[in-house]
């Protein structure tokens, strides 16, 4: 049975799964977390059992080596599992990559070159891709880009209002990210409602460490909150999201340099900057304990999501679905309740009991008389990457 190894590397983690793209069956899965932060943690699941261990992984090259070791320790070395292809999540594909792409040396180099436009992500992808290509040189490696789904943005959504010559010279435009997630989640929302995706106007809120909103009309992305880089838009774990560009100029003229501002906005902002903690669970706990900074962080977080929700309701001329996904969207009922409060005028009304349910599968959380169906749909970037990689291999 041909299987696809899916490698989803983030800035400090690698999630991986071995998937049969035909049936969607998961044969093994795992995660290396806290890469480059002292002791990393590995969790590997195979044949119904999970093994966890501390590992040393200073970067994504070493982390990939630990994944290989986990398969060996479980008694099923990767090289003996009949891996027919490797699918890699790549966040930034720029203008070059509009669909899943077989990685050769030139493509691998281009992914490195695009690092400036996804500094937390592309360098990590590049290391994992190199390591995987060395281990499995004889199978196709396929890059599936976060940016690809947003190729359908109309010009008035992807163009910033700056001098077009300068924008063209420096490649400044909106690309949008989390596209693989927005795509699979909007399709599964349509499946849950038993309606063709082509008939639906959807707003997907991907609220993870990184977070973005997407307006989807008939299955096509028509607007999204992330921009040239994954920094624009919503408040995130450690990223600011929207900020007056004038504030950046002010900081630069006040003595910070570009690297200082980069670190400020990408790593010391968002929930972490506002409350001291990057993890939504800790922010909620602090707020419940009476920490006013944490309470304010939550209000800013919710207000920004509502800002985009309102914008996309208008852009789409109304919506059939609002879909919550990713770590926060799937797990935090209080955030969903905050986002959807007082929107009856728009036909949006949550059912508090459905919203509070801790079920892990895709589900409806709006009331029966809500004109807009509000859903929680677990994201599954890995299944979508396996599907797209499988299609490329079959061609
Ligand atoms: N059970 C939970 N309760 C509250 N927050 C959660 C829960 N599970 C995950 N999260 C939040 O989700 C975030 C991570 O989301 P995830 O989609 O895994 O992000 P990423 O893939 O970008 O690393 C964490 O920062 C955490 O705040
Ligand atoms: C694009 C992006 O922000 O990805 P992640 O949420 O995995 O950090
Ligand atoms: Mg993610």
From TrEMBL:
<dbReference type="InterPro" id="IPR043129">
    <property type="entry name" value="ATPase_NBD"/>
</dbReference>
<comment type="subunit">
    <text>Homodimer.</text>
</comment>
<feature type="active site" description="Proton donor/acceptor">
    <location>
        <position position="146"/>
    </location>
</feature>
<feature type="site" description="Transition state stabilizer">
    <location>
        <position position="178"/>
    </location>
</feature>
<feature type="binding site">
    <location>
        <position position="381"/>
    </location>
    <ligand>
        <name>Mg(2+)</name>
    </ligand>
</feature>
<feature type="region of interest" description="Disordered">
    <location>
        <begin position="36"/>
        <end position="57"/>
    </location>
</feature>
<dbReference type="GO" id="GO:0005524">
    <property type="term" value="F:ATP binding"/>
</dbReference>
<keyword id="KW-0479">Metal-binding</keyword>
<comment type="function">
    <text>Catalyzes the formation of acetyl phosphate from acetate and ATP. Can also catalyze the reverse reaction.</text>
</comment>
<dbReference type="InterPro" id="IPR000890">
    <property type="entry name" value="Aliphatic_acid_kin_short-chain"/>
</dbReference>
<keyword id="KW-0963">Cytoplasm</keyword>
<feature type="binding site">
    <location>
        <begin position="279"/>
        <end position="281"/>
    </location>
    <ligand>
        <name>ATP</name>
    </ligand>
</feature>
<keyword id="KW-0547">Nucleotide-binding</keyword>
<dbReference type="Pfam" id="PF00871">
    <property type="entry name" value="Acetate_kinase"/>
</dbReference>
<dbReference type="InterPro" id="IPR023865">
    <property type="entry name" value="Aliphatic_acid_kinase_CS"/>
</dbReference>
<keyword id="KW-0460">Magnesium</keyword>
<keyword id="KW-0067">ATP-binding</keyword>
<feature type="binding site">
    <location>
        <begin position="327"/>
        <end position="331"/>
    </location>
    <ligand>
        <name>ATP</name>
    </ligand>
</feature>
<feature type="binding site">
    <location>
        <position position="8"/>
    </location>
    <ligand>
        <name>Mg(2+)</name>
    </ligand>
</feature>
<feature type="binding site">
    <location>
        <begin position="206"/>
        <end position="210"/>
    </location>
    <ligand>
        <name>ATP</name>
    </ligand>
</feature>
<keyword id="KW-0418">Kinase</keyword>
<feature type="site" description="Transition state stabilizer">
    <location>
        <position position="239"/>
    </location>
</feature>
<dbReference type="InterPro" id="IPR004372">
    <property type="entry name" value="Ac/propionate_kinase"/>
</dbReference>
<dbReference type="GO" id="GO:0005737">
    <property type="term" value="C:cytoplasm"/>
</dbReference>
<dbReference type="GO" id="GO:0000287">
    <property type="term" value="F:magnesium ion binding"/>
</dbReference>
<comment type="pathway">
    <text>Metabolic intermediate biosynthesis; acetyl-CoA biosynthesis; acetyl-CoA from acetate: step 1/2.</text>
</comment>
<feature type="binding site">
    <location>
        <position position="89"/>
    </location>
    <ligand>
        <name>substrate</name>
    </ligand>
</feature>
<keyword id="KW-0808">Transferase</keyword>
<protein>
    <recommendedName>
        <fullName>Acetate kinase</fullName>
        <ecNumber>2.7.2.1</ecNumber>
    </recommendedName>
</protein>
<dbReference type="GO" id="GO:0006085">
    <property type="term" value="P:acetyl-CoA biosynthetic process"/>
</dbReference>
<comment type="similarity">
    <text>Belongs to the acetokinase family.</text>
</comment>
<dbReference type="GO" id="GO:0008776">
    <property type="term" value="F:acetate kinase activity"/>
</dbReference>
<dbReference type="GO" id="GO:0006083">
    <property type="term" value="P:acetate metabolic process"/>
</dbReference>
<feature type="binding site">
    <location>
        <position position="15"/>
    </location>
    <ligand>
        <name>ATP</name>
    </ligand>
</feature>
